[in-house]
Amino acid sequence: MTQGRLLGKTAFVTGGGAGIGAASALSLAAHGARVVVTDLDAAAAVAVAAQITAAGGQAVGWHLDVTDESEWEARIQETLGTFGALTVLLNNAGIAPTADLIEDLKLSDWRRTLAVNLDGVFLGVKHGIRAMKANTASAGSIINVSSVYGIVGTTRAPDYVAAKGAVRLLTKAAALECSQSRYPIRVNSIHPGFIETPMLSAGLSSMVQRGFFPNTDTAHQVLQSLHPIGRLGLPTDVAAAVVYLASDESAFMTGSELVIDGGYTAQ
Ligand SMILES: NC(=O)c1ccc[n+]([C@@H]2O[C@H](COP(=O)([O-])OP(=O)(O)OC[C@H]3O[C@@H](n4cnc5c(N)ncnc54)[C@H](O)[C@@H]3O)[C@@H](O)[C@H]2O)c1
User: Fold this and answer.
1) Which residues form the catalytic set?
2) What residue owns the CA closest to ligand 1's atom 8?
3) CATH of the domain at 112
4) Is 155 found in the same domain as 41?
5) Is 4 inside any structural domain?
6) Which domain covers residue 200, as residue numbers?
7) What's the rounded mean pLDDT across residues 147-170?
8) Same-domain pairing of 228 and 240
9) Which atom of ligand 1 is nearest to the CA of 93?
10) From the CA of 229, how far away is ligand 1's center (Å)?
11) 116 lines ligand 1 (CB under 6 A)
């Protein structure tokens, strides 16, 4: 592993207290970035930041609800005040679908998923661009976490696929806008298959409770069978892609979608 690929960069991670966000925050720091770990669960963000500092890195852990625009503004300003600049923004925070059919899905549940999984990304992109557009020392990289369900559809997740599909194209719109404005900012999306995180564990338990599967082992096997590579993904599989997109190694990539799915969408 090349160390120092992100030296001098400041990365801001949403939903950094668990799963993909936590693994990404740790990997970004391991490669030399200063990391602002944020989460709705402030204690979880603080714990991940503490893990980074204990390993010799630089990090802070703060509360951020990605649906709250005034909190976004405050946290970005605090980042600039603490570390001087913002260079990497990982829009990772997200919630799972309700697992309802469209005909049963409550409007309030639809709006909640869209608020976190799409509005939250929009607000991050908006305030990320404002903070990064004048960067000179280090170009900016915005990474939006979509899903394989931003590329293909599935049942019982209409709110989730709608949000993730929109994140995929919002990413391209932002990439084009930044390029056209000659801002030093690249914007890309990543599309994980099923990844072993707290969100997945909760989803498996909920599917069993609702009677879709007899037990979590069976549910796990069914999900695994969707991935030709023969296993589900690990948060570190996604974190490696995040580090690449955050680094200058991906300097010619913008508006693109990086798929990390063990072959899920290759079929
Ligand atoms: N796990 C998977 O299989 C998978 C697959 C594809 C995409 N994703 C996406 O990856 C991202 C991370 O998923 P994960 O599996 O690590 O989830 P997770 O539930 O394990 O972790 C998500 C984190 O986001 C935080 N969060 C939730 N709502 C928030 C809000 N309003 N503001 C700020 N933080 C909030 C949670 O507190 C939690 O710490 C999500 O966008 C998810 O949709 C996950």
Assistant:
1) 160
2) 147
3) 3.40.50.720
4) yes
5) no
6) 196-232
7) 98
8) no
9) 24
10) 23
11) yes
